[in-house]
Amino acid sequence: MPIIKIAIIGSGKISEKYIAVIKKFKNLKISAIVSKREKNCKKKAKNFRIPFYSTSIDYMMKTISPDIVIVCVTPSSTIKVCHKIFKYNCLTLIEKPIGLNLTEAKKIVNMAKFYNRNSFVALNRRFYSSTALLEKKILKFKKSKRVVHIIDQENTINAKKNGHDRETIKNWMFANSVHLIDYFKILCRGNIKNIRTKNYKIGKKQQFKLSIINFSSGDIGIYQAYWNRIASWHVSVSSANSFFYLSPIETLYEKKFNGKILRYNNTNVDKKFKPGFYLMIKNLIKQYKFGKSNLITLQKNLDTVKLIEKIYLKNYEK
Question: Which pTM value belongs to this model?
Answer without folding.
Answer: 0.94
